[in-house]
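Cross-check.
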Amino acid sequence: MNINIRGDKIAVTDAIKAYIKEKLAKLDKYFEDPSTVDAHVLIRSKNNQDTIEVTIPAKGFTLRAEESNDDLYASIDLVVDVLERQIRKNRTRLNSRKNEVADISFAFIEEEANEEEVSQIVKRKNIETKPMSEEEAILQMELLGHSFFVYKDADEECMAVIYKRKDNNYGVIYSR
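Predicted model, tokenized:
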């Protein structure tokens, strides 16, 4: 796996790089040809919290995880565990797309005795969207107690999704 490591307001030492490479090497066994897979690692430090964000774009899907902890090495361990759990949890979905997704191999995932329940769609909803501003959409989202809200943006004249980020700010996704 090709690993690109960068730090934001933190010096990335050789020891940190070596530890990250060692831990992410655990994921190599899940890819048919790990040398063609790139992993992008971003390390941030804020208020005595070290955050590590790992993004692995593969053919047909993207693995992404972000973890924070007081200890950077603990954050690295946690993020690798999350990525491995994502692969295990979604192996059925990824395996069904095997023809499209040639990057991943499931030979190393042993069958688990207490299989996690596969998530499924349990509700569908039709919504009427009326043109509104981002501020109105935030208000509606907060009133509903949701972490996202779908609306028609009055300024951009397209569908949009506004969502609450982990840092308590908001993000907007436009559909053009």
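Residues 2-96 form a domain with the Double Stranded RNA Binding Domain fold (CATH 3.30.160.100). DSSP finds four helices and eight strands in the chain. Passed to J.P. for a second look.
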